[in-house]
Write a structure and sequence with these properties.
476 residues; globular; alpha/beta; five-stranded antiparallel sheet; Immunoglobulin-like
Length: 476
Amino acid sequence: MTGFRSKKISKFLAYICGVVALCLTFASVFMPGVSGSDGPSDRPEWKTGLWIWQSYSGQYQNHEGSASAVDLLYVQVDEFSDSSGNGCPNNIIVSWPDKLPAASAYFAVWRFSGMQPPGPEITPVLTKAYLDLKARVTKSGQNLVGLQLDFDCPTSQLEEYGRFLSTLRKVLPEQELLSITALLDWFRPETRIADVVHAVDEFVPQFYDVGSGDWQEDLPGIAKTVDPARWAGVFNAFERPYRIGISSFGRIAVDCRDDNAPLSARRRSFFRDMNPLELMNNMELVLAAEQTNAAGETVLQFRVNPRLKEYRRYCRCSEKTESLEMILPSKQSVYQAYVAAQAMGGWCRGAVFFRWPLNNEALALTPAEIQRLTAGKELIADESMVEVEDGYCAATTCSDLFLRLKDRFPRKPVTLSIVSSIALEYFLPGGQTQAQLNGPRSIEVSLPAYAGLPRIYLGRAVTREPATFLIQGKDL
């Protein structure tokens, strides 16, 4: 009986091994991006990062305490172009933001806005600027691991760009990583993309702002669908580490056209820093359609009242404005892109989100929201919250009140009451909200649909003694 049982066990184990082998064969044939043969056996840990992009229009929002430390921060430190005529600026000014959020590692990002790849003359200046920055950043305890170039190189000039990157890679110390952003157009057949990718330590394909953005498109958007079946084999073939660039921001588009111009002359203007709360309060917008595009973003289409006296101020059009479109990131757009990036397998090392929101940006997701979505959770929080900051009044007690909505982009108008623990002397409304006293201890707040702001300033409450403030009801 023992021998018979042993034979049965041996046959069963052989059957299991055969099934496992068949499954691995299936995966290698039909899922090349996930095959173990496509990447190194000692594959590094998956890491998620964000770009911090400085801008003339404002600094990044400081969300300290709202999210745990991120793996990587790609920090823009300068933007330069070939304005001198020889491709070599005499000096590169480096701006490293103060009080950067905590991260395991940082990349310093240089944006090159020239029409042609930079020449080799710039490599000593760029290398010195980076190493000087590294010495300064290291003293502050931050781990700067590499340099990233952000250059939308014309696809026809990739060979020249590859030569520049090869020169830069030789000049940079070996332990410093060289990274680049990459346009998807570079990876079409018969380009010199290999010259570029093989010269760097990491590339980041950008899956956003790929389309033409024409108004005639059926349902435009920002994000492009991350499709592992199409892209995993393409990227993994270079045997170079890469991370997928994912959109986490929204945008408002305005349809501008002259009454006498043909339909084909309609001009679409895009704005990332428009305040949806201000627009909804002042533009008399009528929601015409709410749809979801192929990448999972929410696309809202509004009709505009052109008789409104100040509509041009908000739409920023000199011509007639009839339509306004709001593109919003969603759980679907962010989560499905992140999962698809993980399915790339092979040499894929993670994802990078564009971007950490600036102070004047309302439609970009916060780092905490991105972390929640990539964990498979909903964008909607457990409940709305009131945040109180000391107003530092000399003769009395005053508090600045801020609201974080449970649903950042509510589909219907929101009305709620904020109750003080003691009677209010008076309340000074602020910002773009409709907030007013509704009793000795109650402030009534009314917000339009799709308010969008991650943190809404309500106004200043004045009391005789320090007070606490709570939202009445927990289902808001």
